[in-house]
């Protein structure tokens, strides 16, 4: 090529490059002005099955320059397209496609064959694969009459499909229909074999109907229908359950071709329906993406060579298991592992074409040039799958064919060599800007063209080299895992031996988008709310979009599923269908990040299905069922329940609990004489399912009892009887009508060497089915008997129970123990020994002995200790030292105690060390002196000889032993002395005081006191008084003692009812000792009146005075006991009744007067008035007394001067408690808080008619009294 032509090509290519939008391009897209060999771009499939009613179109298209010329071969010979009227060229430009038009009714079979297209120009010739054209055929089924077939329910059966007459091209889709409906679904019970027969593993009643086998020719849109088979199901003679077996086995399976679908059939029969499982036993696992089970068949789509191997089918039901293996072999027509590509090279270059083919059997590879066999050429060499050319020249431009062939077919591929001369030209736009995100692989494009192909290098100030940089074959620079340091300008340089070309590119790196907080997996109960939160971190310059996916598909929000804020997914009222894999997809314009989390909506399982009874026997049955929906929580087990018609009819009871998910059968042991129903529940961690539907009823026949009454024993309630008792058989074990019990007993033989005859037994019958005892009278005392109890009914005798030994009743022991004596004695224990009583005197079973004892200084306090067993000795511990004790021994048996031993045994315990002193306190005498006082020990344990008092300084209360001062000791030798004065002490200092009492044995237990010296002054009042709780009769008070000032020796609480001002009326609780280890103290005031207002204060005291807190008030809960008594008389029932009676009497008198007046009689009013003068209740009420009104306030002297009169309550009187009671508050100096005339506290509840203001002081004069 001269230089002018080269310049022209550069201009043309530049014009072309300006229109290139993609960085991906091929040499086939070059402008037509550049010479290019033909490249096949479209061809028909190698198997071309055609419908004769339609035009036969055989595609062939190619690109190249100059213009392509097309020709065709048929069966290896030149096809004259132009001379055959049935064949025509496609009208499309630059197309070599031909069209064949046939007679649809009578197609010419001569047009079937193998076609091959050639595309040629002066640069070379490309050829297509051989295209085999076949005309479709849809032959009919063989003819047969419609038939009826009768099959017993439960039996297996095969409905045969008629054969097709002739070869069907392509093979039809065979299926069966029932009653003319849609195709029958294939299941584990219903399958189709390789001969297209319909096979039932077991017949069900619902299978009855009309069946037909159909062939669907998809290519022709035609369906052929075979004869009709009417299936009649015989329910009168059902077939029983049976283990699985195989009807047909694909043992000699022919090889399957690569790319075809493989179907492995497992045709079974059995009852219950066998469960079919497939697995691969060699060569790896099943290809999950391409394998599926249809009915009982395993289908593997688009088989490849690695699918070859052994496969196993397992069929199982509750009665057994069966399995078989089938070997699969895969053949493959040739296909390309490495398909060669066209190459544009310069003169003098070397070329290598690699062509790798695969197949089974292994294909042979051959080569052609422009569709013709290779000739000899000095610079060309063939080595198997490789064709090499060296020192290329222009004439080496051609299309080379690589041909792979085995017995299953032939494949042809084309690869051109185009020898041209051209300097580099950049096809990528200059100064292009790229933006990527951190950690992405950036790609900067540098697409160039030239011949020979330009060499690409990239620079960023210097040549880029290293593992992070990769230059692709199209010149693109790939920078792995970019960072902000990769920002900047880059330069691409394209070079070949005819020149070089450069371009600039700019890279900008953004911050990576990442999921900062991914959503977490959730497991929620159905109906609850689920919320996923997804927090995203991204570059601030990039906009963020978050989309939620459900199982990979975009999730559409709605009323139940919302995204309240960006990154949050809220699902309300969750249901089972919400269980899925949810993805948070965060996207920017530059990158995206995602995180996934699963949502499992769990619920109780669905009830088990399809309950069936099998293996039915008299007292057993097998129950089977199918698993219901687990609702996303695996089933953990099942519970079988039953209901029967006799014992507890209508009540479901638990029969059997089964653990495990996959146990779907259970053998049930039944009881005779019952009518059963069964149901099953499933359980998972959420809970128990609803029960399944119940089975049909199952009745067991009656039978003799098969159980022995339990709990058989013989015990006497009196010395002359024995009660034989047992536990009656429960209803489920009675097994039939007429249940009764036969009781057999006899005295236990003295020798067990010879078994006595059965005639020695006494036999009694208890006819009550619920009977549970029989009483044997007139027995000797505590005599052994052998006992058996046997259950019987109208159907026979049950098993005889084992012999049980029982005893007649015991009597009290008849004799006392003898020779009781004292053994070892310690200060706190005494051991007694005695002679045991004889067996004859025990009168029963000796349980042991009781020792009764008392101290002579307290003879009324008799104590007792029990010693079980027959040992004639006892150790009585827990005694008090230095005491005189009396002991008696009493034998006892099951009946009770025998006589005590006599005379009592005496023993004295020796002295011991004393217990701790009874109390220890210290009072402040002055700032350096403490008066220590104590009480004698409550447990002297001997004669007290004195006391030892030790004291020492300490930094504060509760300080550990190591920080105490040196001990000082005072010995008190007079046992009557109970105090000691500690002088010359340090001021304001804490001391620990320890006190021990002594006997001649030694010092006893220690009493400790921690106290301090302080000023000789009254203590400060306590702080922070708080009422913790109140009840009807108590108040609980707490306080904080003063932390400074003189120390109190005790605290107590003073209290009184409100309204009592006299200081003498304060009551006080028991004292509370100071506790240096507690910040607060408390005391409960008991014995109070309910519904009463109380005043209280806390008092701290010592030898020098007291400190009082301010008065606080509170009210006890409940109603005052005087509240009801204070109800006004005008509201009491008796008073209202009396008033009504008086009104009625007056009305009657008025009526009588009216009648007499009308009759002319005279009514002597004056006489009536005189008669009424003697009745004080009828006297007019004077103004000075008032009716129910308060008297004017009078002095106590005026009140005392008047004689007491009855008080009349006001009809409009106050409802306040105490308004109708006479108060003593106005009588002299009587304490209003104390008793009234009748000795009660009623006076405390008096009240003024007018309410005093709160600040008005309470005084005795403030109470008014009705007169």
UniProtKB/TrEMBL annotation:
Belongs to the immunoglobulin superfamily. L1/neurofascin/NgCAM family. One of its GO terms (molecular function) is protein tyrosine phosphatase activity. It is a single-pass type I membrane protein. The chain crosses the membrane at residues 1134-1155. Residues 1165-1200 have a biased composition (Basic and acidic residues). Neural cell adhesion molecule involved in the dynamics of cell adhesion and in the generation of transmembrane signals at tyrosine kinase receptors. During brain development, critical in multiple processes, including neuronal migration, axonal growth and fasciculation, and synaptogenesis. In the mature brain, plays a role in the dynamics of neuronal structure and function, including synaptic plasticity. It comes from Branchiostoma lanceolatum. It is found in: Cell membrane; Cell projection, Growth cone. InterPro entries: FN3_dom, FN3_sf, Ig-like_dom, Ig-like_dom_sf, Ig-like_fold, Ig_I-set, Ig_sub, Ig_sub2. Residues 686-713, 893-920, 1165-1267 are annotated as: Disordered. The keyword Phosphoprotein does not apply. Its EC number is 3.1.3.48. Residues 607-702, 708-811, 816-912, 916-1017, 1021-1119 form the Fibronectin type-III domain. Gene3D superfamilies: Immunoglobulins. It is an enzyme of class 3 (hydrolase). This is Neural cell adhesion molecule L1. The keyword Mitochondrion does not apply.
């Amino acid at each position: 090529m001269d230089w002018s032509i080269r310049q022209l090509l550069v201009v043309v290519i530049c014009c072309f490059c300006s229109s290139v939008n993609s960085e991906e391009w091929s040499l086939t897209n070059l402008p037509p002005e550049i010479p290019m060999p033909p490249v096949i771009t479209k061809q028909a499939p190698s198997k071309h099955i055609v419908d004769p009613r339609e035009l036969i179109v055989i595609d062939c298209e190619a690109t190249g320059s100059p213009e392509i010329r097309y020709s065709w071969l048929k069966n290896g010979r030149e096809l004259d397209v132009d001379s055959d009227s049935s064949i025509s060229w496609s009208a499309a430009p630059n197309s070599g496609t031909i069209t064949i038009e046939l007679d649809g009714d009578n197609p010419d079979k001569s047009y079937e064959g193998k076609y091959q297209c050639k595309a040629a120009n002066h640069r070379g010739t490309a050829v297509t694969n051989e295209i085999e054209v076949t005309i479709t055929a849809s032959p009919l089924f063989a003819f047969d009459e419609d038939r009826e077939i009768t099959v017993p329910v439960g039996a297996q059966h095969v409905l045969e499909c008629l054969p097709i007459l002739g070869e069907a091209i392509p093979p039809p889709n065979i299926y069966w229909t029932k009653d003319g409906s849609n195709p029958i679904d294939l299941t584990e019970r219903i399958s189709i074999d390789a001969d297209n027969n319909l096979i039932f593993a077991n017949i069900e009643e619902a299978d009855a109907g009309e069946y037909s086998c159909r062939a669907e020719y998809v290519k022709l849109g035609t369906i052929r229908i075979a004869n009709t088979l009417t299936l009649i199901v015989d329910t009168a003679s059902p077939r029983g359950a049976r283990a699985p077996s195989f009807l047909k086995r694909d043992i000699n399976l022919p090889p399957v071709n690569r790319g075809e679908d493989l179907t492995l059939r497992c045709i079974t029969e059995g009852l219950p329906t066998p469960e079919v499982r497939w697995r691969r036993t060699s060569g790896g696992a099943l290809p999950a993406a391409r394998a599926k089970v249809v009915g009982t068949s395993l289908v593997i789509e688009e088989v490849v060579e690695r699918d070859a191997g052994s496969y196993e089918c397992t069929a199982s039901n509750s009665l057994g298991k069966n399995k078989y293996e089938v070997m699969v072999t895969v053949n493959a027509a040739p296909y390309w592992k490495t398909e060669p590509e066209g190459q544009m090279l310069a003169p003098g270059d070397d070329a290598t074409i690699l062509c790798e083919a695969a197949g089974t059997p292994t294909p042979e590879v051959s080569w052609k040039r422009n569709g013709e066999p290779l000739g000899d050429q000095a610079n060309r060499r063939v080595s198997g799958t490789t064709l090499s050319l060296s020192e290329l020249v222009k004439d080496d431009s051609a299309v080379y064919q690589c041909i792979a062939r085995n017995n299953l077919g032939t494949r042809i591929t084309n690869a051109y060599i185009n020898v041209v001369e051209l300097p580099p030209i950049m096809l990528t736009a200059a100064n292009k800007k790229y933006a990527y995100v951190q950690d992405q692989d950036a790609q900067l494009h540098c697409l160039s063209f030239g011949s020979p192909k330009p060499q690409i290098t990239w620079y960023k100030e210097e040549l880029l080299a290293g593992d992070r940089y990769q230059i692709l074959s199209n010149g693109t620079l790939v920078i792995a895992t970019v960072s902000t340091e990769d920002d900047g300008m880059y330069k691409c340089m394209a070079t070949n031996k005819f020149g070089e070309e450069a371009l600039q590119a700019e890279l900008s790196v953004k911050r990576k988008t990442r999921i900062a907080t991914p959503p977490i997996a959730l497991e929620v109960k159905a109906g609850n709310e689920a919320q996923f939160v997804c927090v995203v971190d991204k570059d601030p310059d990039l906009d963020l979009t978050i989309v939620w996916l459900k199982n990979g598909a975009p999730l559409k929000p709605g009323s139940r599923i919302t995204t309240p804020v960006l990154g949050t997914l809220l699902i309300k009222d969750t249901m089972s269908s919400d269980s899925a894999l949810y993805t948070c997809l965060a996207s920017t314009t530059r990158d995206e990040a995602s995180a996934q989390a699963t949502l499992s909506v769990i619920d109780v399982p669905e009830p088990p299905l399809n309950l069936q009874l099998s293996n039915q026997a008299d007292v057993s049955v097998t129950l089977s069922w199918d698993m219901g929906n687990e609702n996303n929580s695996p089933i953990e087990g099942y519970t079988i329940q039953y209901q029967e018609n006799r014992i507890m009819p209508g009540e479901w009871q638990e029969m059997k609990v089964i653990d495990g998910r996959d146990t779907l059968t259970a053998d049930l042991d039944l009881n005779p004489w019952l009518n059963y129903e069964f149901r099953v529940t499933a359980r998972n961690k959420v809970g128990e399912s609803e029960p399944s539907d119940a089975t049909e009823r199952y009745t067991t026949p009656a039978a003799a009892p098969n159980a022995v009454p339990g709990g058989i024993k013989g015990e006497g309630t009196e010395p002359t009887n024995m009660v034989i008792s047992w536990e009656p058989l429960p209803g489920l074990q009675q097994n039939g009508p007429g249940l009764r019990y036969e009781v057999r007993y006899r005295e236990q033989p003295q020798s067990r060497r010879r078994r006595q005859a059965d005639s020695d037994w006494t036999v009694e019958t208890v006819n009550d089915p619920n009977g549970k005892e029989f009483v044997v009278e007139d027995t000797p005392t505590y005599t052994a008997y052998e006992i058996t109890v046997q259950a019987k009914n109208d159907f026979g005798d049950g098993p005889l129970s084992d012999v049980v030994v029982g005893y007649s009743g015991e009597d009290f022991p008849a004799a006392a123990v003898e020779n009781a004596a004292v053994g070892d004695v310690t200060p706190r224990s005494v051991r007694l020994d005695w002679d045991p009583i004889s067996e004859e005197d025990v009168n029963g079973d000796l349980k042991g002995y009781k020792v009764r004892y008392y101290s002579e200084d307290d003879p009324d306090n008799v104590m007792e200790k029990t010693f079980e067993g027959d040992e004639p000795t006892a150790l009585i511990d827990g005694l008090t030292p230095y005491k005189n004790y009396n002991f008696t021994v009493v034998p006892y048996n099951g009946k009770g105690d025998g006589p005590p031993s006599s005379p009592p045994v005496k023993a004295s315990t020796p002295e011991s060390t004393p217990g701790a002193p009874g109390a220890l306190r210290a009072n402040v005498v002055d700032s350096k002196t403490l008066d220590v006082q104590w009480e004698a020990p409550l447990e002297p344990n001997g004669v007290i000889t004195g006391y030892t008092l030790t004291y020492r300084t300490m930094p504060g209360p509760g300080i550990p032993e190591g920080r105490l001062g040196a001990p000082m000791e005072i010995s008190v030798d007079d046992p009557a002395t109970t105090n000691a004065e500690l002088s010359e002490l340090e001021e304001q200092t804490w001391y620990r005081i320890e006190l021990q009492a002594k006997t001649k044995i030694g010092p006893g237990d220690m009493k400790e006191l921690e106290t301090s010296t302080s000023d000789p002054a009254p203590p400060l009042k306590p702080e922070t008084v708080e009422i913790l709780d109140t009840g009807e009769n108590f108040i609980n008070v707490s306080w904080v003692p003063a932390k400074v000032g003189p120390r109190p020796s005790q605290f107590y609480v003073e209290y009184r009812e409100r309204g009592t001002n006299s200081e003498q009326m304060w009551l006080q609780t028991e004292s509370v000792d100071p506790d240096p280890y507690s910040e607060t103290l408390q005391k409960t005031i008991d014995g109070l009146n309910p519904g009463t207002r109380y005043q209280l204060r806390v008092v701290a005291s010592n030898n020098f005075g007291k400190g009082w807190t301010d008065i606080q008030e509170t009210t006890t809960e409940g109603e005052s006991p005087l509240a009801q008594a204070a109800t006004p008389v005008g509201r009491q029932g008796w008073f209202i009744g009396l008033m009504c009676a008086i009104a009625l009497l007056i009305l009657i008198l008025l009526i009588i007067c009216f009648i007499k007046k009308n009759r002319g009689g005279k009514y002597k009013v004056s006489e009536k008035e005189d008669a009424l003068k003697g009745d004080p209740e009828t006297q007019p009420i004077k103004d000075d007394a008032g009716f129910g009104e308060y008297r004017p306030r009078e002095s106590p002297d005026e009140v005392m001067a008047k004689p007491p009169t009855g008080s009349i309550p006001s009809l409009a009187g106050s409802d306040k408690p105490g308004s109708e009671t006479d108060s003593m508050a106005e009588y002299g100096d009587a304490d209003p808080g104390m008793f009234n005339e009748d000795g009660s506290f009623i006076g405390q509840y008096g009240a003024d008619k007018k309410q005093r203001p709160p600040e008005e002081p309470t005084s005795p004069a403030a109470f008014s009294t009705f007169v």
